[in-house]
């Protein structure tokens, strides 16, 4: 359901966005898988992110082919291999965040298309995936990055927070309530907001800075304050956002995700500046280089990734409001889960301060 023109005046024209979407579709394999680049590997999270961009850009058949790949390749326990190449499994482990993200893509595609039949057809896969993921939730509420592990990632759990909200929205639409998921979401939200130190220390990565905002756990003034806190460490004026705080690298996907985070807390002008700044990564065919080492002006890594182009399209949609899915990262219409306390989460013994 397109509400307007998918374009960002002065930054991206409709033809440029279509060109980027076509560059993603060109890398898509006959199976429906969307690898990082032609001949590269596919992971379940970036595959879904790319499918979302195809939906937003109006390439519906290609997007639905990608979701059909997800439905067809899901394992019995609800997971997917972390890495496949040309249909062959290269890494059989199951990353919980990777598996949860299908819910975001399915809900987004429904918002864009209004196709309730699609939602119903994908619901069994979403339900199995979320059940698998919540089996990795610890007693305090965070989600182990793999099942049977007590190690949890702040970025991954923040993304899962968003996935759970989308999954609950789907459950409501198909009239299949999941009260256990509501409890799991509430516990996860609580630990993300109040007990950040339970997560592995990955503070050098910009994603650990902005993902609690992007994933919807921290919003409003608290979200704006969080983004202000480390802005000088991660944002390079005129170029975009760093991947890590100790290397001279800016990366396109992180820049666009930061723009989405800013848009979600009302910082539209800063989001537009970032989207404009990262256009130096654009290639003539509409694809985007993954990053730049700004200390010497060299592309690094030397690859143009589908998910970088996808992040550009999704940021452009959020800022233009062109599709009915443009508010998906803003959390428009999504449930918030059941509120919980330290006692409910078993966090009373944690002497930690919220990040």
Automatic annotation (TrEMBL):
Top-level taxon of the source organism: Bacteria
InterPro entries per UniProt: 6-hairpin_glycosidase_sf, 6hp_glycosidase-like_sf
Name the record gives this protein: Prenyltransferase
């Amino acid at each position: 359901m397109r509400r307007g023109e998918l374009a960002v005046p002065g930054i991206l024209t409709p033809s440029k966005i279509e060109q980027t979407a076509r560059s993603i579709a060109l890398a898509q394999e006959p199976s429906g898988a969307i690898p990082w680049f032609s001949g590269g590997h596919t992971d379940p999270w970036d595959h879904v992110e790319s499918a979302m961009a195809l939906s937003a850009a109006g390439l519906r058949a290609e997007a639905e082919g990608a979701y059909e790949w997800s439905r067809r390749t899901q394992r019995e326990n609800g997971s997917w291999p972390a890495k496949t190449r040309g249909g062959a499994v290269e890494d059989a482990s199951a990353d919980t965040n990777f598996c949860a993200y299908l819910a975001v893509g399915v809900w987004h595609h429904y918002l864009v298309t209004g196709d309730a039949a699609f939602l119903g057809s994908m619901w069994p896969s979403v339900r199995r995936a979320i059940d698998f993921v919540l089996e990795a939730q610890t007693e305090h509420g965070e989600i182990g990055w793999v099942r049977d592990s007590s190690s949890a990632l702040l970025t991954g759990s923040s993304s899962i927070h968003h996935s759970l909200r989308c999954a609950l929205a789907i459950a409501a639409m198909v009239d299949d309530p999941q009260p256990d998921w509501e409890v799991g979401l509430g516990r996860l939200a609580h630990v993300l907001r109040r007990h950040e130190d339970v997560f592995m220390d990955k503070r050098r990565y910009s994603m650990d800075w902005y993902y609690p905002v992007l994933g919807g756990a921290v919003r409003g003034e608290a979200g704006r304050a969080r983004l202000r806190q480390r802005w000088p460490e991660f944002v390079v004026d005129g170029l975009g956002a760093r991947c890590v705080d100790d290397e001279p690298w800016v990366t396109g996907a992180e820049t666009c995700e930061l723009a989405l985070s800013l848009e979600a807390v009302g910082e539209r002008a800063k989001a537009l500046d970032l989207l404009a700044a990262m256009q130096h990564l654009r290639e003539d065919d509409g694809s985007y280089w993954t990053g730049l080492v700004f200390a010497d002006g060299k592309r690094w890594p030397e690859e143009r990734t589908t998910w970088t182009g996808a992040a550009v399209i999704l940021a452009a949609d959020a800022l233009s409001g062109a599709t009915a899915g443009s508010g998906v990262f803003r959390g428009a219409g999504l449930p918030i889960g059941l509120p919980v306390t330290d006692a409910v989460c078993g966090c009373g013994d944690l002497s930690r301060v919220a990040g």
